[in-house]
Design goal:
With 431 residues, the protein is mainly beta. The protein contains one helix and 35 strands. The strands form nine sheets. It has a four-stranded antiparallel sheet with strand order 1-28-27-26, with no helix packed on it. A four-stranded antiparallel sheet has the order 2-3-4-5, with no helix packed on it. The termini are far apart.
């Protein structure tokens, strides 16, 4: 019996060793030397990276259709600066930047054919945009220089100006849903240190925290209206977490003085932070604890963007450098799912007293927005806004609203929105 135990343990150790050996970061040939500020994958095969020359204007958009093995590049607006990229469907996407050839007007590029062609929208007297993001398919935001922000409510067909409450450079932005969002601003692109919040879709903003001049924030993520993570450098590499909507922050990681986080990305509880000196940090508990996952070579690499799609993570950075990690280790394939469209299941238990589980199934990887509404149509709580892999998923709700208060007993609706469905179901909370 003892010998059998030894054999079993040996097999387990060997398997884990093999998985660890395969789950390393590999260098990807991007084919360019531009600094790559943005990366976004629609599914495990189709992805985009964006950036511009490190010695002057020359915006580039990279596209892969085979999981990053090969990339094609295009320069839809020669002489431009290109930063962030975001897609709302397999075919429709947006890029933020500046058209240097037109006195630095802010620019949004739009594609409706998966990046084959791009159309340009210019915004005079705006200088440039750094990010464009869509919390839901129809509502999107763009932010950038001198506090300029734009909003669309028709899927990017038209954009209108909104007041950000600041004239500083807005480098970072994250929206939990179409109404609740955060921006990070500073006197220039390299020293953002103030966090502002909106709860009304950008109509008004309040300053929730000013970190002062020693802090430079490079990444922001919010799990919901209250729980969030920021990362950057305050004299050393640092990650902080809030549970009260950004009013107070607790340090969860500190690193070397040479480290400075430049980008954050979360997929459910798994989070990645990348930045200076080629450092890559990883958390598996929504940012409560962090570990150094890798230092890529050359160590002089500044990593500027990171994105996880299904079980693969991509990091892009200076001089066209790109890296990839397969989290599946030895690449065990998942079973195929028979459903041809997302399925929202009935919550269980229903009715319920203190907690219920909401489950849904996806045939393919999709961006999912799952929310709770009352009978008047008011948003009660946003439960999920993330890219989910194919398969079955379950999200729990404890009957609380966005500020953690217990909601009144009665009838509520939970709604799932993806690129392919918009579906709701009813549930009942008992006293």
């Amino acid at each position: 019996m003892k010998s059998l135990y030894v054999v079993i343990m040996s097999v387990i150790v060997l398997t884990l060793t093999q998985i660890s050996a395969f789950a390393e970061w590999e260098t990807v040939d991007s084919g360019v030397t531009d600094d790559l500020y943005g990366v976004f994958f629609i599914n495990e095969n189709l992805g985009f990276a964006t950036g511009w020359r490190n010695n002057g204007p020359g915006g580039v958009i990279l596209k892969t259709t085979n999981s990053g093995d090969n990339w094609t590049s295009s320069m839809p607006v020669p002489g431009s600066y290109i930063f962030g990229v975001s897609f709302t469907s397999d075919s429709k996407g947006f890029v933020a930047g500046s058209d240097a050839g037109n006195t630095f007007n802010a620019m949004i590029l739009t594609t409706t054919d998966s990046g084959e062609e791009w159309s340009m929208s210019l915004f005079p007297s705006s200088y440039g945009f750094y990010l464009v993001d869509f919390p839901v398919r129809s509502v999107g935001y763009a932010c950038g220089y001198l506090g300029i922000m734009k909003k669309t409510t028709n899927g990017g067909d038209t954009w209108t100006s909104i007041s950000s409450g600041t004239s500083e450079v807005i480098r970072l932005m994250y929206f939990v849903d179409e109404n609740i969002g955060y921006i990070v601003s500073g006197v220039n692109y390299y020293s953002p240190n103030k966090v502002r919040k909106t709860t009304d879709g950008g109509d008004s903003w309040s300053l929730v925290h000013d970190f002062g001049g020693s802090m430079g924030i490079g990444g922001i993520y919010f799990q919901d209206a209250d729980r969030g993570v920021i990362a950057g450098n305050n004299g050393s590499e640092v990650v902080l977490k809030t549970t009260d909507g950004g009013n107070t922050w607790e340090t969860t990681h500190t690193g070397p003085s040479s480290g400075a986080v430049q980008s954050l990305h979360f997929k459910e509880n798994s989070g990645w932070a990348v930045g200076n000196s080629g450092r890559i940090l990883h958390t598996t508990d929504y940012g409560d604890t962090w570990e150094l996952d890798a230092t890529v070579t050359p160590s002089s690499t500044t990593l500027l963007a990171v994105f996880q799609v299904q079980q693969t993570v991509y990091a892009t950075g200076s001089s066209g450098r790109m890296f990839k990690k397969d989290l599946d280790g030895i690449g065990i394939e998942e079973p195929e799912h028979a459903s041809v469209s997302p399925v929202l299941h009935q919550n269980h238990p229903n009715p319920f007293y203190t907690r219920t589980a909401i489950s849904f199934s996806l045939a393919d990887a999709e961006r999912v927005h799952l929310s709770i509404y009352n009978t008047t149509g008011e948003l009660v709580k946003s439960l999920a806004h993330d890219l989910f892999r194919a398969g079955d998923h379950e999200v729990s709700w404890d009957g609380s609203n966005e500020i953690g208060q217990r909601v009144a007993p009665g009838v509520y609706f939970y709604r799932i929105v993806t690129d392919r469905i918009d579906q709701s179901k009813c549930m009942v909370i008992l006293k």
